Write a sequence for this structure.
C-alpha cells in the first residue's frame, strides 16, 4: 500500500514538473522573441540598449521571482515583484501579438513590397518612434484592462421551473466564481466584491470555486477571510473547490474558508428549500492533486426525489454534458474567465461547451460565469468581471422563460 502511494505521488510530481518545465520553456521563448525584436531599435553598445536589456529581463523574471520569494518569506519586495510580473503577463501577450503582426507584414512585404513607402512618412523614419508608439499603446491597453478588472458588474438571470410551487417567493441567488483571494486580489478588491454581493440582498450566496488563489499565506496575512465573513444571506454562503484550491492545498484552503463562515461542499447535497436541492461538486482536479475520484452525478442524485429542483454547482464547465444527461435543472460554473484577455477567449470557446453565458441544453439550463476576480494579471480585456443575480421563479402561464433569458445572454448550442 505504501509503495503504491509513493509511486502515485512520484508520478504526480513528475507530471507537475514536466508541465511546469513546458510552461516555463514557452514563457522564455515568447520573451526572447519580443526581446530580440525590440533590441533592433537600439544601436550596439549604447546605454539605452543596456537599460532596455536589464529592464526587460527584470520585468520578465519578476512574476516567477515574486512567487518564489512568497514561498520563502512574504514581504513588500515579494509583493512588488508579483505585482510587476502580473502586469507584465498582460503586456507580454499584447507585445507578442503586435510583434507577430509586424512579422506577418514583413512576410507579405517579401512578396508584395509596400513597407518601403513608410520611409516617406517622417515619424516612421525615426528609429525609436515605432517601439515607443507600441509601448504606449500596450500601456494604455493594460491600464484600461486593469480599471475594467477592478469594477465588477451585476448580471441578472431569470430562471423559472414548474418544480417550484407558486406559493414560494422567488429565490434570490448570487453566484460569484473565481475570486482568487491572494496578493493581487487583496483587501480593496475583496471589500468591493463583498459589498456588491451584499447589495443584492441575496437569499443564498454561491461561491463556485477558485475562491482562493494558489497560496493561502497571502490570504491569511491580509486577513481576507475576515472580509469574506461579512457576506450575508439567510440561507448561507456556500462554496465548492476549484482547481486553484487544489494547486495550493485543498485541505488547508477548505478549512480556512469554513472557519470564516463558508459552507464548503464536497460532492454533497444541500437543501436550500423544501423544493430546491443544491449539489456542490468536488472539482475535477481532485484526482490529479489528491488522487481522489469524485462521485458521478448519477450517484449523487440516486436517492433524490424526482420532484426536486436540482441546482448543481461545479467549478469547471467541462462536466456540463454530464449534468444534461442526468436531467439537472440548472448548473452553474466558472473557471474559464472567458479567456480574461482577448483573444484567449477563442481558446476557451474551443475547449469548453460554454465559455461564458447562458444556454438551454435539452431540459437543463446552464450558466458559466466569467468570474469576478482575476488570475495572474489584474487585467480583463474583452469581458467584464461579474457577479450573477439569479432569480429562481415558479413557472406560471404569464412567465415567458425564453423572453426573460434573451434579455441577459445569448443561448448557445448543445455540447
Amino acid at each position: 500500500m505504501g509503495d503504491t502511494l509513493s509511486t502515485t505521488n512520484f508520478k504526480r510530481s513528475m507530471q507537475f514538473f514536466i508541465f511546469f518545465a513546458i510552461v516555463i520553456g514557452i514563457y522564455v521563448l515568447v520573451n526572447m522573441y519580443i526581446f530580440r525584436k525590440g533590441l533592433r531599435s537600439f544601436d550596439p553598445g549604447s546605454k539605452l540598449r543596456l537599460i532596455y536589456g536589464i529592464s526587460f529581463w527584470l520585468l520578465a523574471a519578476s512574476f516567477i521571482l515574486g512567487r518564489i520569494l512568497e514561498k520563502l518569506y512574504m514581504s513588500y519586495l515579494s509583493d512588488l515583484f508579483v505585482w510587476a510580473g502580473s502586469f507584465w503577463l498582460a503586456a507580454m501577450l499584447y507585445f507578442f501579438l503586435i510583434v507577430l503582426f509586424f512579422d506577418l507584414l514583413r512576410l507579405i512585404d517579401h512578396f508584395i513590397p509596400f513597407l518601403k513607402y513608410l520611409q516617406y512618412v517622417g515619424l516612421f523614419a525615426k528609429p525609436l518612434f515605432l517601439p515607443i508608439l507600441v509601448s504606449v499603446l500596450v500601456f494604455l491597453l493594460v491600464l484600461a484592462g486593469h480599471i475594467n478588472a477592478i469594477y465588477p458588474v451585476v448580471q441578472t438571470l431569470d430562471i423559472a421551473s414548474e418544480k417550484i410551487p407558486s406559493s414560494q417567493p422567488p429565490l434570490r441567488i448570487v453566484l460569484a466564481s473565481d475570486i482568487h483571494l491572494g496578493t493581487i486580489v487583496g483587501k480593496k478588491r475583496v471589500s468591493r466584491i463583498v459589498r456588491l454581493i451584499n447589495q443584492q440582498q441575496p437569499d443564498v450566496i454561491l461561491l463556485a470555486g477558485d475562491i482562493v488563489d494558489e497560496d493561502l499565506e497571502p490570504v491569511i496575512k491580509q486577513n481576507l477571510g475576515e472580509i469574506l465573513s461579512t457576506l450575508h444571506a439567510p440561507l448561507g454562503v456556500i462554496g465548492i473547490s476549484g482547481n486553484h484550491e487544489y494547486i495550493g492545498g485543498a485541505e488547508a484552503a477548505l478549512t480556512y474558508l469554513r472557519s470564516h463562515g463558508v459552507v464548503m461542499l464536497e460532492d454533497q447535497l444541500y437543501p436550500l428549500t423544501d423544493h430546491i436541492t443544491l449539489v456542490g461538486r468536488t472539482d475535477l482536479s481532485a484526482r490529479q492533486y489528491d488522487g481522489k475520484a469524485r462521485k458521478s452525478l448519477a450517484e449523487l442524485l440516486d436517492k433524490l426525489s424526482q420532484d426536486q429542483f436540482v441546482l448543481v454547482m461545479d467549478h469547471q464547465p467541462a462536466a456540463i454534458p454530464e449534468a444534461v444527461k442526468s436531467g439537472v435543472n440548472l448548473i452553474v460554473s466558472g473557471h474559464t474567465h472567458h479567456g480574461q484577455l482577448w483573444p484567449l477567449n477563442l481558446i476557451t470557446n474551443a475547449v469548453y461547451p460554454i465559455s461564458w453565458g447562458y444556454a438551454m441544453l435539452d431540459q437543463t439550463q446552464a450558466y458559466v460565469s466569467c468570474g469576478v476576480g482575476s488570475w495572474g494579471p489584474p487585467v480583463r480585456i474583452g469581458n467584464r468581471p461579474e457577479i450573477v443575480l439569479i432569480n429562481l421563479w415558479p413557472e406560471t402561464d404569464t412567465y415567458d422563460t425564453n423572453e426573460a433569458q434573451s434579455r441577459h445572454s445569448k443561448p448557445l448550442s448543445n455540447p
